[in-house]
Amino acid sequence: MTAEITSHEELRELLGTPMPRAVAKERTVLHERDRQWLAASPFCLVATAGADGSCDVSPKGDPPGFTRVLDETTIAIPERPGNRRADGYRNILDNPHVGLIYLIPGRTDTLRINGRARLVRDAPYFADMVVRGHRPVLAVEVRVEQIFYHCAKAFLRSELWQPETWRPEALPSRPRLIKEVEAPVESLADLERHYGPEYATRIYS
After folding, report:
1. Is the pLDDT of residue 43 over 90?
2. Is a pLDDT exceeding 90 seen at residue 147?
3. 103: number of Cβ within 10 Å
4. Quick one: pLDDT at residue 125?
């Protein structure tokens, strides 16, 4: 029989009270160490929710420092060519609240930022976001409302950065997955060519 949790009180009784330091670590202004973390991070996850409560998490990656610090409470994330679904961006237009997690490869802690976002189609700082000659098509500006560092436990439990635990061959290749799940009418040969060695040369076009 499934035992569902249905109240804040029940949840707190089950999990216990957070340590004072875990509560007090929340900040609303970027620290110099936050700036350094953003300058070193090449990857973040952007969580959004639509007006109807539907959620989306989108990965964003670029050379380290791709997120630009505009001031002590504002950052900007560039958009690069993708699948054009724009799920997260449509969510932001309806509900500006976003959650971000910034990773640094090999680090088991993460930087978390929650705030209010807006979409910007152009700004003077876009010139500083050019990568391989490509200017971002838009940027997500986030006004920081909550920022703190998250501990290493999830990464230690998962052994995420331990190469000896990596098993990329556990699942079929990207072309095979696409053919089986998304595009059964396309030939495997065409998909293998598309996702072959030249794929990495087209990621900014």
Report:
1. yes
2. yes
3. 21
4. 97
Q: Phi and psi (nearest 5°) for 200?
A: -65, -20
In angstroms, the CA 87 to CA 89 distance is: 6
Question: Tokens for 85?
Answer: 């679904």
CB 82 within 8 A of CB 100: no
Q: Which residues of the chain form beta strands (DSSP E)?
A: 43-49, 55-61, 68-71, 74-78, 97-103, 110-120, 139-150
Q: Which two tokens stand for residue 123?
A: 């700004």
Q: In degrees to the nearest 10, what's the CA dihedral of 67, 68, 74, 80? A: -50
**How far is Cα 131 from Cα 33, in angstroms, rounded to an integer?**
25
Judge contact between 121 and 136, C-beta under 8 A: no
At which residue do the structure tokens 């952007």 appear? Answer: 46
Burial of 14 (0-12, 13-18, 19+ CB in 10 A): exposed
- Report the C-alpha gap between 47 and 30 in whole angstroms: 20
* Amino acid at the residue 29: V
| Whole-angstrom distance, CA of residue 30 vs CA of residue 35 | 7
Measured in residues, the chain has a length of: 205
The residue assigned the tokens 């957070």 is 18
- 110 strand-pairing partners: 150
pLDDT digits (tens, 9 = 90+) for 67-104: 999 999 999 999 998 889 999 999 999 999 999 999 99
Domains and CATH numbers, the chain: 19-157 (2.30.110.10), 167-202 (no CATH)
Question: What span, in angstroms and rounded, lies between the C-alpha atoms of 70 and 149?
Answer: 20
